Amino acid sequence: MRYRLLGPTGLRISELFLGAMGFSDVDESRPILDAYADAGGNVIDTASAYGRSEEIVGALLDGRRDRFVLGSKYTLSRDGGDLNAAGNHRKNLVLSLEQSLRRLRTDYLDVYWVHVWDRHTPVEETMRALDDQVRAGKVLYVGISDAPAWVVARANTLAQWRDWSPFAALQVPYNLLRRDAERELLPMAEALGMTVAVWGPLAGGVLSGKYSRTGGAGAGARLAPESVTEREHAVARAVTEIAGELGATAAQVAIAWTRARSPAVTPIIGARSVEQLREDLGAADLVLPGEAVERLRTAAAFEPGFPADFIAQCDTAPMVYGEAVARVDGRR
């Protein structure tokens, strides 16, 4: 396992995060966390809305909490009958954080994530409230999940102007079948120096090939076989084909592809068993040849749309930048 820095900060993070969303039993989850730690992993991702996950993680980290970069999220409702028990406003932030700290048996979080953009709360309120928790020592760094690029960029600009803690990282869904983040979110994060923690790198298991192999996905499958489209099967077959050529597994290839697309990307891996975790961890050592990256990209046809595709055309257009534009070596 190699390590990176969390966004523009000095915090060292492993190149694969461990998603604890599925943690529901201490005895079942302990060997998974231990195997991840033994491989050099140090980042655990959970949330207030992930059932018993925070409580389980808190129990598992007893006596070794400080060796991990622990992150949790808030926004989602703590009480369906209370409107103020959800959202990104100050009241829910404070109460959610206190609840998470109790469950996780810790007095601070390394990373506190906004779980989803709340249209009803001014971003100024959220950023100031998060900064208050950083100054109080209950949170060290902040991140945001599932939000438009313009919201994140505006939030970080406000933080820069007002000397608040900016978002150091972004969480988004990203995989070969879901490449929407390439339109605005990935370019924004790269420009702002943010880490991009991507969830769902296997697209619910579709890219592992288990839905496309003879005999079906087997027991415990998350998706109904009939819900997997022909396009998804075709991409999964391309992943499996390249995996065979490289002596890797389809899951490793799919995870490695997300990392190959941008140096900002850090996949979040989740596992139901130690064997599955170790397979996914193998993606850290897999470097895809450029030809394989391109084959996978073309197998999963994707159009960025306006304005990205229009601007790309302008980049090389003599009418826009003059006759010598083709000889300009830009920064990217």
UniProtKB/TrEMBL annotation:
This is Aldo/keto reductase. Residues 16-298 form the NADP-dependent oxidoreductase domain. CDD domains: AKR_AKR9A_9B. It comes from Marinactinospora rubrisoli. The keyword Phosphoprotein does not apply. Keywords: Oxidoreductase. Transmembrane segments: none annotated. Pfam families: Aldo_ket_red.
